[in-house]
Batch of 3 targets.
Target 1
Amino acid sequence: MKATICKVQFDIDYLCPNCRLHFRLSNDDIPQTRESSVECPSCLESLTVTFPEEFVTFPIKSNNKKKEVKDPVIQKAVMSMKSMGFNLSEATSLVNKAYHSGITVADLIKEAIRNVELSQT
């Protein structure tokens, strides 16, 4: 059985020539260009860091995906319709079609169910 890489931990240690502080950059903090500027956390000296040609970095994926903030009215209506027997995708679709700003949860559910009844006739 073959294992797959799920996460790469990568650290680079630096030495500030001004204050002699050792500091470390990890994962997302590591510069992704061949030459970049880094600030010493102790003396705040601006340092230029150059990576050798043979230095290989792995592409770093950010886990900071922006999550879509949904209206709580929509979430409550979808969950209510799901408890009535609709599957999640049906409930989400129906609620999104009937939603408009300022609508209450109860009215949103009524509108979504009315759309189901109209589509069946």
Note: The chain has a mean pLDDT of 79.
Target 2
Amino acid sequence: MAPLVRRDAEARDAVRLVANDIFEVWLIGWPSHHSTTRHDHGRSLGIVLVLDGELHETTNFAMKRLGPGEVTVIAPGAVHDVGTTESTALSLHLYSPPLTEMNFYA
């Protein structure tokens, strides 16, 4: 069976698995050496579960590494950056309410 998302592409590959009025869930495949730019999720709370590989999250206060089974919670309006290092990664993202905006920062 083919995977839902690829991790060997040049950019993140994402598929929305569930969406309703209360929350949405995304499966994201991350290539190695990839990072988002600093951003927030507007008024949505975010929860990220690493399924495979390793992600790093950087906020104004700290940088943490997340391995399989580890979770990070992103408060509404919190600014962060997420990415990979040498390996690819696979993560599950839940947003509530569903994303209606993302603001990006230099």
Note: The longest strand covers residues 45-52.
Target 3
Amino acid sequence: MAGQRERRAPWRLVATGPGPAVVVELDAGGPPCDVVTHLDVDESPSTVGLTVWAGRESGAECVGLPALLGTFRVRVPLAQPLGTRTLVPGSS
């Protein structure tokens, strides 16, 4: 993922796993003007904080606000499986 951190994108948990990962979905405009650009993950023994950043792809020339194109799913790798921890919006 490469691009600008223009906005925090609200997400919804849709699956855990396989392995140490979760899958979230979010609404975005689509490439190249509104894509997932970064994932900030902060893991503790009781919670996993997740901030999904969206914005323009590197080098994209976009004018105005992107139209909503659809719902996109993103696999988020974790250091350990989610297990009994709570997945929460991050504070980054």
Note: The CA atoms of residues 8 and 87 lie 16 Å apart.
